[in-house]
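Weekend entry, working from home. Most of the wet-lab plans are on hold until the incubator is repaired, so I used the time to fold the two sequences that have been sitting in the queue since the last round of cloning. Logging both here for the record. First:
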Amino acid sequence: ESGEIMKKILALIAALAISSAAVAETTSVTMQAADGVTVYGEIYTAPGIPKSAPLILLFHQGGGDSRGEYTPLVPRLLDAGYNLVAIDQRRGGDRFDGENRTLAGVGDTEYSYCDVVPDLEAALAFAREQGFSGKTAAWGSSYSAALIFKLGVDHPDEIDAIIAFSAASGEPMAGCMPEPYSEKITQPVLALRPGREMEVPYVPGQVKLFEEHGHQTYVANPGVHGSSMLNEARVGAPTDDTWRVVLEFLADKLGTGD
């Protein structure tokens, strides 16, 4: 009986997500990074959310693309009253069965993770050019969760909060690891990890460091890597507790568009 109840609850959640997505407006856009790379992305808005409402900049994980990672999460963020800008960064792929249009556009040119910072800065500048004037959160997943620490330090007057899902570190992030920026950053930070990643050698130390610097941390159980820890289909279990932590943080630090 409890299984049937859970099925009905999940069906209701899915129906609500579809309903929200139906009234949302999705606009595909391009922007130019400082080094000339064309960055592709989407603006997500919904009726009743003004451009003065809080904004979330969504950055995907390695091997992925913005639509593949964030399409399942967009309805709930719109329902909470936020405007959204998501981009395909030049480091990515088809991990979530999507197409990374920015990567396709750079051809055979190879970039490091640190080379992606201009893409994040382009998204921030583009959002302001489009008239989004509300408080702004930078939301990162895996390698982009590391890069948003640098983005926050470099743009303290434009970024109001940081949400980092499974922030990458180590040799692949040499030159742009989150740890050196953790102490410098002045914005409120929420850093999240799935429980299984607490067994990765560097992760407990990183979490402890974040906490020593006054940042909020959260371990999602169950959970998976990156922003997908909010995606029920990828976790294989309810994600309500993790969503509650994220939405409470956003409401406290940014307010909502309601």
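Second, folded right after the first finished:
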Amino acid sequence: PLTLNMFMVIQDYFIEHPMNSLLQASIDLKIPKSTISRILRTKIKMKPYKLSLCQMLDEAQKAARLEFCTWLLQQPDEFIFDVIWDDEKWFHLNQHPNRQNTRYWGLTPPNLVLNLKNQNVKKIMAFVTIVQGKAYLFWHTDEDGKSVNVNTDQYIKSVEDVLKDISTEQLNVYWWQQDGATCHTSKKSMAYLQGIFGDRLISKQLKDFKIFGVPEWPAHSPDLNPLDFTFWGQAMKKVWDEKPSNLDELKATVQRFFDSLSPDFVKNCVANIRK
């Protein structure tokens, strides 16, 4: 039977430890998990808020996003499928908390910042491109399989690797998208990309290379790149689920994930950009 004391104990516990799981609370308080859940939801009226990452935008960045999104929506519906969407991501043997499972119990949505550090953790950087339902994966490593810094030459090497499987006929139609990382927008990288795509570039620094008519890629816009808003999270979940013990196993896990993606699923995810 519920008692006022039990009610107060559970309420005080989650006020002090809002990110603890129901299981941990059950262990700490010696109260059944189902009872704790029922009291939180029906009596205390706390809700399990899902964590999300965000980046603060200034007014200029908001204006740049609006300009780019307006331009993108003016293109034909099929345009986004002719864009090669790309991004790079570190994969760690010790991943960040799984945001699919982590919850914050509270009476109101929390304004919470987590400082997550991954110093001295084994990691490796993936470079992935998505186009027309296909995913191309490249690892930023040296000949011995060790992670390397991504400078201009390494970036061009990765682009060459993923483009070698795409026909010249297709490359004459496709657009190339990239963010504003220095190695992406260096003179050497941009000259290389212009040699392949001409003015069909979605990037930063376009005006510096006399590319006009296309708004620059807006800063802090992971919600506009399907790798950021879909595929990276799913790939990380695979890593959490399989728990690889070394970098070779980590690479294999990520490779299997991208190999398993069906063309229809990839295109459906890319279509969400317009939403």
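Plan for Monday: verify the second prediction. The longest strand covers residues 83-92.
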